[in-house]
Amino acid sequence: MAENKLLFERYRKNKSQLKYNFNGYELDKILAMDLISEIYVNPPLKLKTLRYFFLAVDFSSMNSISPFKTLFSIGRYHRDDYYEILNYARSKTPQSVLFDLSKVSPVVRIRVSNIVLACSHIFKNTDLSLKSRLFLACQLTYYLNSINALENKNISIKNYCAFSGVHHLEAIITFYFKKKNIATYSLQHGLYYVFKKHIPLDAILYENFLSDKQLCWGEYSVDEYRNYGIKKESLILAGYPRNLIRKSPPATLNKQKCLVLLARYTYEHSNVELINILKQFSVENDVKISIKLHPTLNWQEYKALCNILGWELIEEKYTLTNMFQKNNFGWAIAINTAAYYEAYLNYIPCKRFNDGTFEDSLHVFNDTFEDLNQLEEVFKAIPFNHKENLSKYFNQADERLKYILGLGIDNYDIINENS
């Protein structure tokens, strides 16, 4: 979306006005995710949110961590595919413990000085609506309360690895350990690349860089970070963090069975446009469609749609990993998702729909389409029933996946080292 660039500039302006070092914690960076969400999405303010003026994170479970162990953390995502990434990294770090924020209940903490500081800082230094400023003041108070609670702890560990160090609560923990000169790492949970035209809120993944070291999937993300200005020594080529069970490339593919990987809710307009194309394409080419939703999409609405169209809607309980392993798809279509690459990892040719409202990451092949005619062309280019051509096709794909995803690379044991 063209307006996203203006929204991102507004985010950067407000963030720069919120610079404040609170005892070693950079408040503008801790607030980054909340700030960009308010500017891009502007969600309604729920009354129950106001209780966070009087709450803090309960860090008491950190008291018993051994100084010889690595601490991992993950935010309140409730996504099985994210835990697959986290658990893979932890499997390479045997002496580790997990602080899962989704399993931590807040504790009451009232400090009037934090409320005054948060309200003053937000209301004086932002150009947002009253609703947005009230929300940010509430969140900042919660973060200040949590910082005070964490500062009262004396936690000694070997290393710290956040699932996503750029996000508020994990950013607080990152700053805590940076102050103690304990090495901090952050995992990559999607394909990170620099946006130039249509800048979504994902851009904070590199714009709000915090950790000492970023564990990157492939050389592609390393190059993108460096192009943005992140120092080489802060970037680690770690590889693709999943247990891949890869068999030999198939001799043939079922062209009548197509998996469609939809984008998150922000790009619902693109999902709708693709579905309209597929209504005609599936009938004319006798292709059976299976839909895999992004977790942000409404399952019931799509269930009703698929029932009308005679398409399959894959159950929410299946992650990408177990879905690819259990289903025999011949090819796939994706919209603005790293699942595009996962399809190729599982020897499923994947085409990408782009209606021009977002920027795609690096392609595996020249496989993007914008309309029905272009879909027909990329569909016909897949060597469904030619064993030699398929073997060559997937060998070429693997070369690209090594650069893009870090296929065949595994350096996650570096988290064990003291830096």
Explain this structure to me?
The strands form 4 sheets. Strands 5-4-7-8-9-10 form a 6-stranded parallel beta sheet, with helices on both faces. The chain has a 6-stranded parallel beta sheet with strand order 13-12-11-14-15-16, sandwiched between helices. The chain has 15 helices and 16 strands. Helix 1 runs antiparallel to helix 3 (32-40) and helix 5 (112-125) packs across helix 6 (130-151). 41% of the residues lie in helices and 13% in strands. The protein is of the alpha/beta class and 419 residues long. It is globular, with a radius of gyration of 23 Å. The chain has 2 domains: 3-243 and 411-416, Rossmann fold; 257-384, Glycogen Phosphorylase B (Rossmann fold, 3-Layer(aba) Sandwich), CATH 3.40.50.2000. The model has no long low-confidence stretch (mean pLDDT 93). Strand 4 (70-74), helix 4 and strand 5 form a beta-alpha-beta unit. The relative contact order is 0.12.
Which helices and strands appear, and what pairs or packs with what?
Elements: H1 3-17, E1 21-22, E2 25-26, H2 27-30, H3 32-40, E3 55-56, E4 70-74, H4 80-91, E5 96-100, E6 107-108, H5 112-125, H6 130-151, E7 159-162, H7 168-179, E8 184-186, H8 204-207, E9 213-216, H9 219-228, E10 235-237, E11 257-261, H10 268-284, E12 288-292, H11 299-309, E13 312-313, H12 320-326, E14 331-334, H13 339-345, E15 350-353, E16 368-369, H14 372-380, H15 387-405
Parallel strand pairs: 4-5, 4-7, 7-8, 8-9, 9-10, 11-12, 11-14, 12-13, 14-15, 15-16
Antiparallel strand pairs: 1-2, 3-6
Helix pairs in contact: 1-3, 5-6, 6-7
Structure described in brief:
This protein is of the alpha/beta class.
